[in-house]
Structure formats: structure tokens, C-alpha cells
Structure to design on (627 residues):
């Protein structure tokens, strides 16, 4: 079975034995081998008897060993950096029917015993090596320059070795190179790379590049075939010829390659942007696929050219290699209302053809300013306000529109400054209108004569998606409780005492002695009982706007889903007051059908005693315990 390699790399393999082997390719007897546009590199042969048969076909070669009675063709290929502790670092060719080498570079190989580049032996006329447009240079054998080694002068006669010219052979044993265009001896201007590289390859094989001024440039011949093998129109990488054919597998200045550097298509944030988000990543979109190479991306504050962060492009903060979009993730968020600029090293990104992005080195190509965060302009009630209604509606005016969509996130704390734990009532209603937010407390009224703080946290989203700049806090004090139904001695109320006082004036005149008696607990209660009927008209003298009386019973209201709370009025409230008095509330309530502070406090005392939620509201749970 024959072997054919096209656009192939044989790299970093090892032969470890005694004889008959190779680190890269070993061709058995009568096996034809064809190698085109391929690289044999960095292979190694280790023999445990490396010098038993000097320069013999039995000794293992570093790169390629081809055995007798076979036909081998090597075209547009590179054999480099192969080693052996025996003979023939690059190629060992023994007694082949023919071996044809065209536009091939055999360089930088080593053989500890000798024959660093190629060892060749032919035992009969007609078994020939044909070679043209090829480089044998920079190889070492037994620590000296040794690029081509013929086993004997017989192997290098015209019937066994055909020099078709335009070869560059620096050091040779048993062969004098005198073909047309041959270049021999050490070449100070060979300018051949010591390192394999992609060199814009179109077939993924690496080559040794020629650089400007090399004696191999335009020194080959491209029209006459080498033993029927045509001179290739392209070099090993796939590049088209530039002028006269070069010697070796690499064409200096070859055409057909992408020679355009990657360029920026878009930047995010855009250059000169004025509303960049504080937590956003930086994104560079290129006009072609790029890979991360090496270097840094640097972020500066424009003021003072202050370096904020150097980000290594090979770190996890830079992603997107192998795509057009490179994402840069700074360690910290940007500051608000601040101008920044970004610089990128010219070595940071490149394309598959080894073209590099030119980088950004100035302060203006990519600069941007972060947005100004929204903030609270004013509040109502104002900060420090006193006498605030115990059922206030708060408004906060912001510096810009507040988001009206579902993305609005709200966290508002209302805390009592007067000791105890800081509670956070449930804020159940938000009304959003342009720059004004209206806040209502879903937990009902605030406590009288109490100072609170209202805090709007940083979780309010503006229309542009940014949180407010910082929490806003203001303080207000709730009004004092109105003077209604304040209890006096015994079970009598201040209102009852006022009625009794008026009645006393009518019945007893200005008798000071009787007034003294009236001030005692017993007389007060007795007078109240005696004049209650006459005083009723005084109690009910309130206008319709002050007292709304309903005929609904307590049970009827609760059954209909309603509830009694502070401010409720009517028969149902009077019924509630009677029940609470019967249960022994202290002080006893005036049964006037007006749900005021004393009734509210009596309900709370009852709820606490029954293990209910203490909120002063009379609903179905509280009613169930009352009746």
C-alpha cells in the first residue's frame, strides 16, 4: 500500500528502538511515498545503538526514512526541526528507484552522529535523486554544518543524482553542487526563519518564512519540470508566485492571501456616548473574525488620565475569541457622570492570516461619558414637616421620568424613630406619573404624635433603566390626636361632664356648695344618670356633616364584607361600644356611635387579649370573638 500526504503535518512524534525506523515517516521496501504541501517537523528518533552502522539505512532517521525499490515524490514541503541521536536528522533515502524533491525546504534538523539534513545512498545507476528549487541549509551533523551527505562519491554521480539546478545547499559531503542557479556555501543573507509559523497559510501547514533580502528570493526557476514534476504555481501555503519562483517551499511576497488588518466595525458604548450605563461591559465588534493574541486593554478616566484598570486580553475578562465580537468585563462598575477612554495594544487581536488589529493608542478614538443617575428633587410632606395627617399621601419628585413599566422595582422603608424596632410597613400602592411618584401606606393610619423617617432605596428604576443615585431619606411628624371622648373619673366622659355641668347650671344655679358636691365621683355619676335624657339632645346636636348614622347592625356590616375602623359612625359603632363596655373595658366608652381614638384603643386591647392581629380594625375575626 502506497502513502500519499497532501496538506498534512507530521509533528512531535518519537521512534525509540534500535534500527529501521524514523521519528516522522518510515517508508517500507517497495512502498511509494508522495508528500505535497506538507510539513514534517519536531519528530525524534532514538536508537539504543546509534553508531553501529555509520550513515546506513539501518540507522533510524529523525524525520523521514525511505527504503529501497520505491518511488518518492516530495513537493512544496517543509522538513524541519527533526532530530536523531544517530544519522540523518531530516531524510534518509536508501537505494530507491527514484526520489524527486521539488521546491522543498530541509532546514534546522540535527543528527548527533552526522548527516544533519539528508543522507543519500544509491547502489546502482538509474536509481536516482532528482532535485530542483530546494533549500538544504542550517542543518547540523555531529555538531557541524551538514546539510547533504552522500554515502560515497559513487552515489552522487550523474546517473545516480540529477541536480536540476536552482538549489541552495550550504554544506555538502561527497557531492559538489554545480547545476544552473545553484547556491552553495554558508549564506549570510539566507534570511530563513528558524521557527515554523502559520505565515497566513491557507492549508493549516506551517512554513519557514524568507524575509526581505534573502538570496533565495526570485532565485528559482518555474517553467521546466523536475523529472516530470511541474514546478508548482503556488507555494506550500497556497500563495501565488510573486515574480520569479523562489527557492524552497515559501514564496516571499506571495499573492492570494488576506493581507488586510482587522478593523473596528462598532464600539459599545459608542465613541462620544453620553449616557453609558455604569455596569455595562465594553464590546468591540470587528469587521472579521479575530482571535485573542497578547497584550492589554487599558481603561482610563479622562480627567487626569487616571488608569482605572489594565485587563490582560488572555484573561477571563476578555471573551469572544474566534468571533467578531470581543467582550471586555471590567472588574468594577463605572462612576456616574464621568468621562472615560479605552486603549488597546496593537498585539491584542489578529485574524487567521496573521494580520493584527492596529490597536487604539490615543485618548479620543474610544471615549464615552457615563449617565447621571436620577435623584429625588423634592418630597411632600417636606423634610422635617410636623402636624402631618395620620393618613398621609406622600409624593416624591425625581430629576427624570420614573419607569412606568413592569420593570419598576420599589423598596420604600418607613421607620419609627421613637424607640423599638424599625418596622417596614407594606407599601401597597404606587402611582407613577412622569417624574412624580405617589406613595400610600397600605397598612392604614400612622400613630399620632410620632416621628417617622421615609427612605426611598436605590431600587427605583428610571426610564433609562438606572437606579437612583443614592437612598433618599426624609423625616416627618404625625399630628396630635383630636380631643374626642376623653375619659374623666369613673365611667363618665368629658362630654358627659360637660352636659352634666350645663344641666347643673339650669337646675342648681350658682350654688358653690352644690358644685363642690358635683365634683365628687358619686355626684357626677348620679347627676349624669338623672340628666342623661335631657342631655341626649345636646349629644345629637352635631350637624349631618359631622355624624353619619346608619341603621345597619354590626353583624350586617361584617357579613357584607365591610369592617369598622377609626372614623366609622352609626348604630353598628354604638353596638360595638355597648359590647366593649359589657366586656369591661376601662375606661368605659361613651355610646355615641362615633369610632374615635378611645374606641380604637379599646378594640386593640381586646384584640391583644384574644391573641388576634392588633390593628384596631373590626372585621370578621374580631367580631367572632366579640359575640
Amino acid at each position: 500500500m502506497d502513502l500519499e500526504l497532501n496538506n498534512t503535518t507530521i509533528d512531535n512524534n518519537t521512534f525509540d528502538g534500535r534500527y529501521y525506523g524514523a521519528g516522522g515517516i518510515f517508508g517500507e521496501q517497495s512502498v511509494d511515498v508522495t508528500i505535497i504541501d506538507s510539513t514534517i517537523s519536531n519528530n525524534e528518533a532514538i536508537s539504543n545503538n546509534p553508531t553501529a552502522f555509520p550513515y546506513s539505512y539501518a540507522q533510524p532517521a529523525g524525520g523521514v526514512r525511505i527504503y529501497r525499490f520505491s518511488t518518492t515524490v516530495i513537493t512544496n514541503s517543509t522538513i524541519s526541526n527533526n532530530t536523531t541521536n544517530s544519522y540523518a536528522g531530516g531524510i534518509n533515502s536508501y537505494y530507491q528507484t527514484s526520489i524527486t524533491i521539488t521546491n522543498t525546504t530541509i532546514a534546522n534538523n540535527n543528527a548527533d552522529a552526522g548527516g544533519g539534513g539528508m543522507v543519500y545512498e544509491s547502489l546502482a545507476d538509474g536509481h536516482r535523486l532528482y532535485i530542483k528549487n530546494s533549500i538544504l541549509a542550517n542543518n547540523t551533523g555531529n555538531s557541524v554544518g551538514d546539510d547533504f551527505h552522500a554515502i560515497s562519491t559513487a552515489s552522487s554521480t550523474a546517473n545516480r543524482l540529477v541536480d536540476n539546478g536552482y538549489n541552495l545547499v550550504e554544506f555538502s559531503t561527497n557531492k559538489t553542487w554545480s547545476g544552473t542557479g545553484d547556491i552553495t556555501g554558508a549564506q549570510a543573507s539566507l534570511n530563513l526563519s528558524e521557527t515554523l509559523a502559520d505565515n497566513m497559510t491557507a492549508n493549516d501547514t506551517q512554513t519557514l518564512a524568507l524575509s526581505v533580502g534573502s538570496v533565495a528570493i526570485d532565485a528559482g526557476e518555474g517553467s521546466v519540470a523536475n523529472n516530470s514534476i511541474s514546478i508548482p504555481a503556488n507555494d506550500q501555503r497556497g500563495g501565488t508566485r510573486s515574480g520569479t519562483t523562489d527557492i524552497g517551499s515559501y514564496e516571499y511576497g506571495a499573492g492570494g492571501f488576506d493581507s488586510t488588518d482587522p478593523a473596528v466595525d462598532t464600539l459599545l458604548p459608542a465613541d462620544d456616548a453620553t449616557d453609558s450605563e455604569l455596569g455595562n461591559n465594553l464590546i468591540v465588534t470587528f469587521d472579521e473574525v479575530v482571535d485573542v493574541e497578547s497584550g492589554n486593554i487599558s481603561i482610563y478616566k479622562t480627567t487626569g488620565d487616571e488608569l482605572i484598570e489594565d485587563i490582560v486580553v488572555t484573561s477571563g475578562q476578555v471573551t469572544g475569541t474566534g468571533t467578531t465580537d470581543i467582550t471586555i468585563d471590567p472588574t468594577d462598575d463605572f462612576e456616574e457622570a464621568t468621562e472615560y477612554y479605552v486603549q488597546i495594544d496593537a498585539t491584542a487581536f489578529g485574524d487567521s492570516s496573521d494580520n493584527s488589529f492596529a490597536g487604539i493608542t490615543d485618548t479620543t478614538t474610544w471615549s464615552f461619558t457615563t449617565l447621571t443617575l436620577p435623584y429625588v428633587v423634592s418630597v411632600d410632606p417636606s423634610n422635617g414637616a410636623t402636624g402631618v395627617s395620620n393618613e398621609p399621601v406622600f409624593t416624591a419628585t425625581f430629576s427624570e421620568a420614573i419607569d412606568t413599566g413592569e420593570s419598576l422595582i420599589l423598596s420604600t422603608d418607613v421607620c419609627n424613630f421613637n424607640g423599638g424596632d424599625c418596622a417596614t410597613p407594606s407599601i401597597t400602592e404606587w402611582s407613577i406619573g412622569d417624574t412624580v411618584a405617589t406613595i400610600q401606606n397600605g397598612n392604614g393610619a400612622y400613630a399620632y404624635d410620632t416621628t417617622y423617617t421615609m427612605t426611598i432605596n436605590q431600587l427605583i428604576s428610571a426610564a433609562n433603566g438606572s437606579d437612583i443615585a443614592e437612598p433618599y431619606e426624609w423625616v416627618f411628624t404625625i399630628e396630635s390626636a383630636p380631643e374626642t371622648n376623653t375619659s374623666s373619673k369613673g365611667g363618665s366622659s368629658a362630654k358627659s361632664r360637660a352636659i352634666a355641668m350645663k344641666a347643673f347650671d339650669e337646675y342648681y344655679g350658682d350654688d358653690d356648695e352644690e358644685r363642690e358636691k358635683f365634683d365628687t365621683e358619686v355626684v357626677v355619676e348620679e347627676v349624669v344618670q338623672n340628666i342623661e335624657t335631657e342631655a341626649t339632645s345636646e349629644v345629637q346636636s352635631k350637624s349631618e356633616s359631622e355624624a353619619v348614622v346608619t341603621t345597619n347592625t354590626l353583624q350586617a356590616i361584617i357579613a357584607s364584607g365591610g369592617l369598622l375602623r377609626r372614623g366609622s359612625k352609626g348604630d353598628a359603632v354604638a353596638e360595638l361600644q355597648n359590647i366593649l363596655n359589657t366586656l369591661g373595658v376601662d375606661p368605659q366608652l361613651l355610646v355615641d356611635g362615633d369610632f374615635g381614638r378611645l374606641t380604637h384603643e379599646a378594640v386593640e386591647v381586646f384584640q391583644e387579649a384574644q391573641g388576634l392581629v392588633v390593628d384596631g380594625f373590626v372585621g370578621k375575626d374580631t367580631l367572632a370573638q366579640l359575640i
User: Anything to note?
Assistant: The chain has a mean pLDDT of 83. Helices lie at 494-508, 512-518, 521-539, 554-559, 571-582, 597-610, 620-626. The CA atoms of residues 73 and 239 lie 21 Å apart.
